[in-house]
Amino acid sequence: MTSTLIISTYNWPEALALVLKSVSNQKVFPSEVIIADDGSKSDTRILVESLQNDFPVPLIHVWHKDDGFQKATILNKAIAKSIGEYIIQVDGDCILHTNFIYDHISQSEKNTYLYGARVNIQKNHLFTLFSKQQIKFTPLSKGIKKRTRAFYCVFLSRKYKAHSVFSKKYRGCNTSFFKSDFVKVNGYNEEFRGWGREDSELALRFHNNNVLAKRLRYAGIVFHIYHDEKSKSNLEKNNLIEIDTLEKHKKWCENGIDKYLF
Questions:
Q1: Is beta strand 222-225 parallel, antiparallel or unpaired with respect to 118-121?
Q2: Which domains can be identified in the chain, with CATH numbers?
């Protein structure tokens, strides 16, 4: 099965460099990596270009002009260009456990999306993190909290089964799904502008199309680099879009990925 790792980013090449270093350290590689860049300055492009020749798989940079927070749009554009049958998605501030890609691929199931957790790296550890270019953590590592999320055990992870109920634990920074299921619901709803709800609303449409959910626990681990909270000024409008999808049991969004598929 072919797979594409999608990494969303915006103007933080230092964090993205660590994430890409962790991708290069995977025990199993995706077929390709696509950087979904929501309008970063040229330093992100320069970083990606500097890594492309020696990267273990094709490394592709999909960018659009900065016009405010348009994560849903850039993710649609990136996924439209992907060759993978299976899409694995993370944020550009999430360092991957060395088995991350393996876990998502090995636990994939037809008609099911996966969602994993994140271990938060604390603010006071950032200097050490970047100065040492650290990409490996254990439950006992300094600088992390919620340590049980860093515990890796495939045997325990396999105990979790697919289910039909949406979980509030779902995060778009650690998820995977079949591209065909994503296209079937028309991808992300590009009516979302600003931070919030574009990922959970997508998951709701998955469920409305009878796509099941499966939690990745004790596997598929990412380590989230601390940063200041993004503006939530548009959250009220985004909440209304999600509520509309929930109440009307929507299976499709009008403003989605279809316009990029040829």
A1: parallel
A2: 3-260 (3.90.550.10)
**Whether pLDDT at 86 is above 90:** yes
* Residue-by-residue DSSP string for 28-79: S--SEEEEEESS--HHHHHHHHHHHTT-SS-EEEEE----S--HHHHHHHHH
Written as six digits, the tokens of 148 are 């049980």
Residue 204 has pLDDT above 80, yes or no: yes
- Predicted local distance difference test score (pLDDT) of residue 235: 78
Structure token digits, residue 211: 């796509």
- Is residue 132 packed enough to be buried (19+ CB in 10 Å), middle (13-18) or exposed (0-12)? exposed
pLDDT of residue 231: 67
Instruction: Please list, in sequence order, all residues whose beta carbon lies within 8 angstroms of the beta carbon of residue 238, skipping any fewer than 6 positions away.
Output: 192, 193, 194, 195, 196, 197, 198
Rounded CA-CA distance 88/103 in Å is: 11
Residue 177 has φ and ψ, to the nearest 5°, of -165, 160
Neighbours of 187 (CB within 10 A): 27
CA distance 70 to 192: 7
Residues recorded for the chain? 262
Of 114-118, 191-195, 236-240, which has the strongest mean pLDDT?
A: 114-118
Contact 8, 71 (CB under 8 A): yes
